[in-house]
Specification:
The chain has about 240 residues and is an alpha/beta fold. The protein is about 40% helix and about 20% strand.
Length: about 240
C-alpha cells in the first residue's frame, strides 16, 4: 500500500489529454492507495465553485468515488485554485487542508505545503498572495458575476505570463521563483519535522539536506503526470506516469 501525492496538474480545456490522464490515474492506481493528497493547482484557474470548466465535472466524478472505496482524498489550495470552496470539495469528496499542514504518514510527521509560501524572494508575488487570500477580497470576488470572474482570471493569467517573460529576459526567473533556503530552514524549525513535501516550483526532486532532513518537490502535469509514492517503510519514490 502507498500514499500518493500530486500537485500542479493545471487542468485546462486546452490540454484535455492531461485531464484524461488524471482521470485514468484516479480510476486505476489511486483506487488502491491508502490516501491521495492534492497539494494545489489542480486547475489552471478556478473562479468559484460555479466554474463551468468541463475538467471540474470530470475530476469531481472520479474523485468522489475514492472515499467510497476507502481512499480519503485531501486537497490544499494552490495559487491558481485558491477560490475552490466547500461546495466543490464536498461534491468531489475532498477534505480541505490548511497551508501548511503537518500530517502523520506511517508514523512520521510530514509537513505539506503548496510551496509558494517558500518563495519569499519573489516579493511582488507574496504581496499578491496576501491580497488574494484575504477573506474579504475573496468574498468580493465571488460576489461578481461569473463572466466578470472569468475575465479577471484571464487577465491575471496574461499578467503572470508577461511577468515570467520579463524575469526570463532579465535572467532572474530561476532564482526568484524557486524556494528561499532560509525560508525552508525556518519552516523545518517551526514545525519540528524532518520531511517536507511541496509543489509549485515545477522542479521535481528529492533533496537530501543537512541534519537528516528531506525536501521533496512534486512535478507538474503540463506534459506528463508526476506522482510521489510513499510507503509504510519510509520510502519515497517520485516518477512520471508517462
Amino acid at each position: 500500500m502507498t500514499t500518493l501525492f500530486v500537485s500542479d496538474l493545471h487542468l485546462d480545456p486546452a490540454r484535455p489529454d492531461i485531464t484524461r490522464l488524471f482521470a485514468a490515474f484516479l480510476d486505476d492506481e489511486a483506487r488502491g492507495a491508502d490516501a491521495l493528497y492534492i497539494l494545489g493547482d489542480l486547475f489552471e484557474s478556478w473562479v468559484g465553485d460555479d466554474d463551468p470548466t468541463e475538467a471540474g465535472g470530470i475530476v469531481a466524478d472520479r474523485l468522489q468515488a475514492l472515499p467510497a472505496a476507502g481512499v480519503p482524498v485531501f486537497f490544499m489550495h494552490g495559487n491558481r485554485d485558491f477560490l475552490l470552496g466547500n461546495d466543490y470539495a464536498g461534491r468531489a469528496g475532498m477534505q480541505l487542508l490548511p497551508d501548511p499542514s503537518v500530517v502523520e504518514l506511517y508514523g512520521r510527521r510530514v509537513l505539506l505545503t503548496h510551496g509558494d509560501l517558500l518563495c519569499t524572494d519573489d516579493v511582488e508575488y507574496q504581496a499578491i498572495r496576501v491580497q488574494t487570500r484575504n477573506p474579504a477580497w475573496q468574498a468580493q470576488m465571488l460576489a461578481q458575476p461569473l463572466a466578470a470572474r472569468l475575465a479577471f482570471a484571464a487577465q491575471a493569467r496574461a499578467a503572470s505570463q508577461a511577468r515570467q517573460g520579463e524575469m526570463k529576459s532579465a535572467g532572474t526567473m530561476e532564482t526568484i521563483t524557486d524556494v528561499a533556503p532560509a525560508t525552508v530552514d525556518a519552516f523545518f524549525a517551526e514545525h519540528g519535522v524532518d520531511t517536507m513535501i511541496h509543489g509549485h516550483t515545477h522542479r521535481p526532486a528529492i533533496h537530501e539536506l543537512a541534519g537528516g532532513r528531506r525536501r521533496i518537490v512534486l512535478g507538474d502535469w503540463y506534459e506528463q503526470g508526476s506522482v510521489l509514492r510513499a510507503d509504510p517503510d519510509g520510502r519515497f519514490g517520485l516518477s512520471a506516469l508517462r
